[in-house]
Amino acid sequence: MNLQNLKDRIQDYAKDVRLNIEGVLSEEGAPGLSQTQIAEVALASAYSTRNKELISHMEQASVGVLDDAHLNAARGAATIMAMNNVYYRFLHLVEDEEFSKMPARLRMNIIGKPGIEKMDFELMSLAVSAIEGCGKCITAHVHELRKAGASQEAIQSTIRIAAVVNSTGQALVIGE
How many CB atoms lie within 10 A of CB 42? Predict the structure, then answer.
């Protein structure tokens, strides 16, 4: 993933972010994840920041790494989790079990049929849920990832990518 243009846009006050973005988006810096998983997690995370410049950089960096199915899955993960994170965070925070007993009545078909490996979609969903701050969703995605055989390192790497991509978006906004 060529990220030099992105790194050049990050000001010196965010030097740690500039250094971290390079580190976490490599297989050495993201143990347990393949280059495809790194790129798709980074892209889904960028989408969830809603930062157009960051999204553009991450889309450019994913060229040649992600095919159309993975691009669409990254978009789908960011979109479905934008809905689910609001709904399930509400259920968690409202502290009223009656709401949890009610059917969600929200379509979530992409979670069952994302068009790519289920584990990859879960990694992206976990990253977006971490950025959005939904504890209930984070717990559910970690459970699914463990059930699918994901390592602790892969899960941690996913969260590290989400954290650094999110802070990169913040650095770009502040630097405008």
Answer: 32
